[in-house]
Amino acid sequence: MAKAVSKIKAAAPVASHHILYGQSHLNFADTVSQFIDKNVNPNVDEWERNKSFPARSLFKKLGKLGIFGVNKPIEYGGLGLDFSYSVVVAETMGKINCAAIPMASAVQSDMATPALSDYGSDYLKREFLLPSMLGERVSCLGVSEACAGSDVASIRTTAHWHGDDLIINGSKQWITNGHQADWICLLLNTNTNPSNHRNKSLVCVNLNEPGIKLGRQIEKLGMHSSDTAEIFFDDVRVPSRNIIGEEGRGFVYQMAQFQDERLVAVAVLLEPLSRVLSLTMEYTKDRKIFGEPVISNQSVRYKLAEMTTELEAVKALLYRAVLEKLGGNDVTPLASMAKLKAARLARIITDNCLQFWGGNGYTWDNLVSRFYRDLRLFSIAGGCDEVMLSIISKHMNEKK
Ligand SMILES: Cc1cc2nc3c(=O)[nH]c(=O)nc-3n(C[C@H](O)[C@H](O)[C@H](O)COP(=O)(O)OP(=O)(O)OC[C@H]3O[C@@H](n4cnc5c(N)ncnc54)[C@H](O)[C@@H]3O)c2cc1C
User: I want to staple 294 with a disulfide (CB 3.0 to 4.6 A). Which of 75, 284, 303, 337 is the partner?
Assistant: First the structure.
């Protein structure tokens, strides 16, 4: 029988003598890991079954650990640490027995708030960043629309100006945390510049404003406890002081924001993939077919060895990209390579491992099948594999 997901504990903290992490990283990871074992993993099966987790209460607790504001300024509720600590936190959040909660948490820390932290006014940071870093307010990021996902520049949600206010009309789709969020970091068209890279702004919008309606909870293949919303804006009035940074620079800010998101997404993938591999190794040692353990077949053993090797290579690529970022370099191509490779490897590892479990792999309450469903998203969201390839090839051409 497959082990019940709730009985599987998070693995021990990552090893010392690490190329990116020192003792203080490991101590932080240990605190987060203990929190997960005690407060998150025992509830995950129920939250997945209910197709919802209590974001407001859980985020308050996670906020107390400081995980939302790891690399954000101390005066706005952050810890003022560098990005390597965000990566170790993301990696540790991967110990949660589903990918939905690490994704929801990454929305708050690395998708909805980096631009606000980098370019927002003091007013916006006090109103939106500070309470989000403390976990007192839940945020979401509104970029994608029914008509525009990969092609971000072609979004249609638009504001026209009324005096000093923006009047917003349009809709967003696929918004993670959307039903439970207090505010949205919204990308929309705010001027008529003919360049669709210069006509957009990122705006902080409270989700209780008149004219905002939440649509259906979107049913998904995986990420079941994650809340995925459609959000409609009908003449929603927001003061222009809610624009993050410079009006018309939203597209550029969003492209920069994607880089943090992609590196964090890779970090979130490492632990589940390593657990899928180790659970499968254990299972294939125990399970005998034709009188021999499944793993005694060279084809199985070699496949597991190859996938373990590829996971190490992805890890090395991630750490290299993070070190480059810490050194102040543009990591757009490296972040895209790491996201592409990690997402593709997630499909390979979860599919091959599920196969090695036979019928037990095809059961619902098996962590391997849950990650098979959950991790499939990583080749689609946050920039699909093909968008990563287009970014990488664009940079290759620029280098020539
Ligand atoms: C569960 C979930 C959560 C999400 N959370 C959020 C969120 O919180 N906020 C948010 O703004 N968005 C979110 N998204 C949206 C996500 O980022 C988009 O789904 C993604 O960007 C892809 O856009 P699309 O779905 O419109 O696919 P499309 O853009 O229609 O692309 C369809 C397919 O076309 C192919 N393709 C795309 N571009 C190229 C290319 N350049 N070359 C060749 N082939 C290409 C790819 O195979 C791609 O999968 C979420 C999506 C899901 C499913």
Answer: 284
Measured in Å, residue 146 CA sits from the centre of ligand 1 at 10
- With a 6 Å cutoff on the Cβ, whether 217 touches ligand 1 is no
Determine the residue of 147, 155, 174, 388 to mutate for testing ligand 1's pocket, defined as the one with the most ligand atoms within 8 A of the Cβ atom.
174
Label residue 275 exposed, middle or buried (CB < 10 Å: 0-12, 13-18, 19+): buried
Catalytic residues: 261
How far apart are the C-alpha atoms of 111 and 142, rounded to whole Å?
A: 10
How many C-beta atoms surround the C-beta of residue 155 within 10 A? 25
Task: pLDDT band for 2, please (50, 70, 90 cuts).
Answer: very low
Q: What is the pLDDT of residues 343-372, one digit of tens each?
A: 999 999 999 999 999 999 999 999 999 999
Instruction: Please write the tens of the pLDDT for every residue from 28-83.
Output: 999 999 999 999 999 999 999 999 999 999 999 999 999 999 999 999 999 999 99
Together in a domain, 168 and 303: no
Q: Is 193 in the pocket of ligand 1 (CB under 6 A)?
A: no
Q: How far is CA 83 from CA 71, 140, 257, 261, in A?
A: 6, 21, 13, 12
The response to whether residue 150 sits with its C-beta less than 6 Å from ligand 1 reads yes
181-212 pLDDT tens trace: 999 999 999 999 999 999 999 999 999 999 99
- Which of 203, 223, 249 is a domain's end point? 249
Indicate the top mutation candidate among 52, 113, 138, 144 to test ligand 1's pocket, ranked by most ligand atoms within 8 A of CB. Answer: 144
pLDDT (0 to 100) of residue 16: 52
378 lines ligand 1 (CB under 6 A): no
Among residues 139, 171, 192, which one ends one of the domains? 139
Is 390 touching ligand 1 by the criterion CB < 6 Å?
yes
The protein residue with its alpha carbon nearest to ligand 1, atom 13, reads 174
Neighbours of 397 (CB within 10 A): 8
Q: How far is the CA of 198 from the centre of ligand 1 (A)?
A: 22
Question: In CATH, what number is assigned to the domain containing residue 30?
Answer: 1.10.540.10
Ligand 1 centroid to Cα of residue 221, in Å, is: 15
Dihedral of the CA atoms 253, 229, 158, 260 (nearest 10)? 0
* Beta carbons of 93 and 35 less than 8 angstroms apart: no
> Domain containing 209: what range?
140-249
Query: Is the CB of 384 within 6 Å of ligand 1?
Result: yes
